[in-house]
């Protein structure tokens, strides 16, 4: 089953995306969430805790994943978004598809 990582699957919009993906049952869904986060994730979502100031934690979280969906808060600094996009392209086996900084998906 393809693996899909989603940032912030506990967010206002991210939660609905994660629940819809799980309902379809075609992917395993893993959420990237900050270590200090108190976000409540939908049942069935795997979670990987990351520290955006340590890009290697994102590379680890994305390793072996087939796709990445970014649903960060609109108030998140651009620098954080760039860190995720760069991490998706780093590391052997990291997500094969990654978002452009505007959130649209592109091939690797
Ligand atoms: N809400 C709406 O009605 C709505 C409507 C249309 C479009 N949108 C767009 O959809 C996107 C997501 O919006 P949303 O309302 O779903 O976001 P949100 O619930 O406010 O935040 C989503 C997640 O972002 C993470 N986050 C928050 N601040 C962060 C920071 N400084 N650094 C890293 N992560 C941070 C948190 O995840 P963790 O705590 O798990 O780390 C949080 O659960 C935005 O681009 C927004 O403009 C939203």
Write the layout of secondary structure elements.
Layout: E1 3-7, H1 14-24, E2 28-34, E3 46-50, H2 55-62, E4 67-69, H3 78-89, E5 97-99, E6 105-107
Parallel strand pairs: 1-2, 1-4, 2-3
Antiparallel strand pairs: 5-6
Helix pairs in contact: 2-3
The structure holds NADP nicotinamide-adenine-dinucleotide phosphate.
Residues 8, 10-14, 33-34, 37, 39, 52, 71-74, 76, 80 line the site of NADP nicotinamide-adenine-dinucleotide phosphate.
Folded structure, characterized:
The protein has 108 residues and is α/β, with parallel strands linked by helices. It has one domain: Rossmann fold (3-Layer(aba) Sandwich). It has 3 helices and 6 strands, in the order βαββαβαββ. Strands 3-2-1-4 form a 4-stranded parallel β-sheet, with helices on both faces. β5 and β6 (105-107) form a beta hairpin. α2 (55-62) packs across α3 (78-89). It is globular, with a radius of gyration of 12 Å. The chain binds NADP nicotinamide-adenine-dinucleotide phosphate. The site of NADP nicotinamide-adenine-dinucleotide phosphate has 17 residues, from β2.
